[in-house]
Amino acid sequence: MRPVQEHRRAPAWADKPATSHACQAVFLPDLAIVGKMRQATRAFLRRCRVLQPVAGFVVLAVSELVTNAVVHGQGEVVLRITVAAGVVRVSVTDHSPASAVLKEAGPACESGRGIRLVDAISDTWESSGEETWCEFRDTRAAL
User: Fold this and answer.
1) What percent helix, strand, coil does the chain show, rounded to 5?
2) Which 8-state DSSP code applies to residue 142?
3) Helical spans, DSSP H, in 48-99
């Protein structure tokens, strides 16, 4: 994942993250990409000084949303991550008009829990069809 745009201002404190960072990856649907996007997300969040547990939740959300787009979406997938003003935002888009929805997966079901997991770990999320996004507050960044 390469940063597509990055705005950096000198932080007031050495341990406080810069004001705004963003990165984007565009790829064709392939389940093999999911692990690569987790690794790239971890590296990006380290660079932005997003610490645990927020970074762990963000990586998990990336895994679920990218998997959902690869399995259920259509066409090219775009992953965008922004870190700004104490909020980490994950956005995944594809060309499917169908919104992601919360499901009740039975105990024997092998899938159907991804969006429920994103709902549980994120501060907010939404799906408008082609885009599904979620946000996480990084309270350390607001200090």
Assistant:
1) 30, 30, 40
2) G
3) 54-72
